[in-house]
Amino acid sequence: MPRFSIIVPSHGVAARLSQALDSVLGQSFGDLQLIPVCDTPDSPAAAVAAGYAERDCRVTPVDSPPSAGPGGARNAGMRAATGAYVLFLDGDDLLLPGALAALDARLTETAGVDVLYVEHERAPWWEGEPTNPAAPLLAKAPRDAFAPDELPELTGVQLPAWSAVYRRTFLTEHGLTFPDSHFTDLGWGGLTTVAAGRIAVLRRVVVRHRLRRQGSRLNLPGPHQHTVLDQVDLVLARAVERALPAERIRPLFEQLFTYVLKTASRPERLPSGHRAFFRRAARLYRRHRPAGYRAPGGSLGVQHRLLATGAYLAFRSLRGANQVTAKATERLPRPRMLRTRLRYALDLRRPLDPNLAVYCAYWGRGYACNPAAIHAKARELAPHLRSVFLVEADQAHAMPKDVEHAVIGSRRYWEVLARATYLVNNANFAEGVVKRAGSVHLQTQHGTPLKTMGVDQSTHPVVAARSGSFTRLLGRVDRWDFNLSANRHSTQMWERAFPGSYEHLEYGYPRNDVYYTATGEDVARIRRELGVPQGSTAVLYAPTHRDHHTGFEPGLDLEAFCAAAGEDVVVLLRAHYFYDRGGLQGSDRVIDVTAHRSSEDVCLAADALVTDYSSIMFDYANLDRPIVVYADDWDVYRQTRGVYFDLMAEPPGPVVRTPQELAAVFRDGSYADAGSAALRAAFRERFCEFDDGRAAERVVRRVLLGEPPEALPPVIPLAERVPAPAAATLVRS
């Protein structure tokens, strides 16, 4: 029998589940059973949990349907638990290092306790210091184990389920399970403390509770708010059944009705039935009020007395007076908009244009990437829409002649941003852009994340220093209605990096459609336009940006590589788009294609790809052509930038670390042998999941035409897709 069973519900947190599980399995104390609770066997979280179970026999995944809620998930975990003690951990929280060893020591010291209460840390998403809300309450507890009567203020209802450890036989003997419905921590905390005979505390932070940026789901408006009264009634009725003395019931009563008054004073949480909630709360208050109970003083005491008498209108009037004070504060003077945006402020008062769509790519670098592919498909499927592309002034000359555009910063730029119903970007619109009611913002992204993104960059100082305010970043994320994903890995990483309330669209990347729609004639034409000699092997070299470098550094002597790799090898050099105006020099064997508008054209022209850690590898994999990873500084890159998975363990092809090794794999042909193909096949299975040539169509129909998801073209299975032919295939044909 393991010492601890740790139960981890995972609903809605698949992206962070691995971090929670790692925090448990990485403990120095290893006598444990880890129970991830997943929605269904085919859910994203279940796939994560299954991987851990294959690697570690201590992991025992179980299922619980989403309809059962968090309480049902925890109950399912308890049914599978075999440990002497039970802990709960939310799927997006962390068990701090050394936690289990400290718990084991304290439980040994206070042998036989039913419940051990511990401290926890509430960590904000970004700005602000972590807090330890349990510390003041637990500081009052005796040093040794004690009976609940000795500290009646420790009722359990003020602490979440993951701020305590429970003796499993105590739970089974008393038939303790999480109540149905919502606010189950409130009911569970009260029921377990009411039943406990001996308890103890550990004055140490054990769990880091990472606050969700969207806030608790329990704070959202809806009929579920009424269920707080069910939990209050359940706990207080159980206290009466067990004949608890009045000294214990009084603090329990007061703490429970603090939650009730908090809800009653926020009628916006109860769009309907606020009066009914208040009246039922008043009946419960009178039914369970302990003999001799005296309401607290001040404003809270006034609310107690109004609730006790059922004075609903007076309670509403009190809240109305508080609202008047708050609105007076909101009317204090605020800074005005910059002069250049005064016109924008006026345009925001005009109605939205239902047929206007605005696009932007790479902060205005031109007509490119997913926005361009969606724009092109919209002209075909939604010709009634007027589309405007946003572009920087020095790139306006490169825009296609038949594409309407507006220069960023101009008066027309602000006008179309104010009036557009649809806004599509692969980065983010400017800070001052206002998200209007009725407008639809689509974030398309511009790559599959290997390196850390968004708020995940905060733990990497070199990157964080260049990233600006994460609070402002999240403010821009709040404008998104939809976020595009090319694979489930991306979906989970976007959820972590850019927490928000947007909807994920797992439709594939529209820019990658061309890899399945281009013909052999297209490939030959592009190679001629780029100047690729006929009969040569074109190797695309696309290194990524290094945050610890100040400019573009090729990282490889390309002329020497060509000489060593073979007479027929030429290199297509494509630097990161940060350097697309750098004026890089080419030669007969090295063709600089950095400034070429379309990275998709460059990929179609290449017979093979050499990259380090650039996300271009995920797109190029759709072509099912050889990929070589040149990882000369992987350890430095991983430490300075941070990565989401170990590319060295799951590469799309051979991994080389020196120029000599790189030249050798091309000279002997191993860059394209059966071993390389096997690595690429596994890579494509994971990362080319939704790219099938119809991504743009799915996006246009869903976002711009409003068609339901079930009406969209299904994703074509990977085995049935036919990528554009490579130049070598054309020559053989």
Tell me what you see in this structure.
With 733 residues, this protein is of the alpha/beta class. The protein is 39% helix and 14% strand. The protein is built from 28 helices and 21 strands. The strands form three sheets. Strands 3-2-1-4-7-6-8-5 form an eight-stranded mixed sheet, sandwiched between helices. Helix 8 packs antiparallel against helix 9 and helix 21 packs parallel to helix 25 (659-667). The model is unreliable at 321-337 and 578-584 (pLDDT under 50).
Q: Tell me the span between the first and last alpha carbons.
A: 66 Å
Mean pLDDT, to the nearest integer, reads 89
pLDDT < 50 stretches:
321-337, 578-584
Helices, by number, come to 28
Strand order of the largest sheet: 3-2-1-4-7-6-8-5
Largest sheet: 8 strands, mixed
The structure class reads alpha/beta
Share of residues in helices = 25-40%
Q: Based on Cα principal axes, name the global outline.
A: globular
Report the sheet-strand fraction.
5-15%
Give Rg in angstroms: 30 Å
